[in-house]
């Protein structure tokens, strides 16, 4: 599996992803999304205060979603924050997305920092498992931790 340190498909959620969001046209997002990360210190400080609502997914992350996507605008959402328990109260000036119980394909990369090819590599690995299919345009999660970059792709069991 190209560049993957580890790969697995696992049940995921339900969760509430809480953070700060931006929307932009697909493929035109680099500087906007990087800016969210650069200015996210206050987001993580507020989420740290909600420690009792933390899940096992404690790392800083970004959720990519297509809730506002249509062929005309091509808007995708990008929310920098954390995966929290479903009943977590949403701090003022933050956004949230409720994630139902589902499955995700998780790819671990040995490099620390964002990988632009992560989505295609994880989807390629997912195709090796005929009982699962990529649930296109639901959500994906980019996870940054000290051991390397992780990328989650929402998938459905066939």
Please, could you describe this protein's structure?
With about 160 residues, this protein is of the alpha+beta class. The protein has one domain: Regulatory factor, effector binding domain (Multidrug-efflux Transporter 1 Regulator Bmrr, Chain A, Alpha-Beta Barrel), CATH 3.20.80.10. The protein is built from 3 helices and 9 strands, in the order ββααββββαβββ. Strands 1, 2, 3, 4, 5, 6, 7, 8 and 9 form a 9-stranded antiparallel β-sheet that branches. The chain is globular and about 45 Å long.
Topology at a glance:
Layout: E1 4-12, E2 15-25, H1 30-38, H2 41-48, E3 60-65, E4 75-84, E5 95-99, E6 102-109, H3 118-126, E7 132-134, E8 139-145, E9 148-157
Poorly predicted runs of 5 or more residues: none
Note the main sheet: 9 strands, antiparallel
Q: What is the CATH superfamily label?
A: Regulatory factor, effector binding domain
Distance between the termini: 22 Å
The assembly state of the depicted protein chains is single chain
CATH topology: Multidrug-efflux Transporter 1 Regulator Bmrr, Chain A
Radius of gyration: 15 Å
In CATH, the architecture is: Alpha-Beta Barrel
Number of domains: 1
Order of helices and strands: EEHHEEEEHEEE
Strand fraction band? 35-45%
By CATH reckoning, the class would read: Alpha Beta
Mean pLDDT: 89
If helices are DSSP runs of H or I spanning 4 or more residues, what is the number of helices? Answer: 3
Structural class: alpha+beta
What's the count of strands?
A: 9
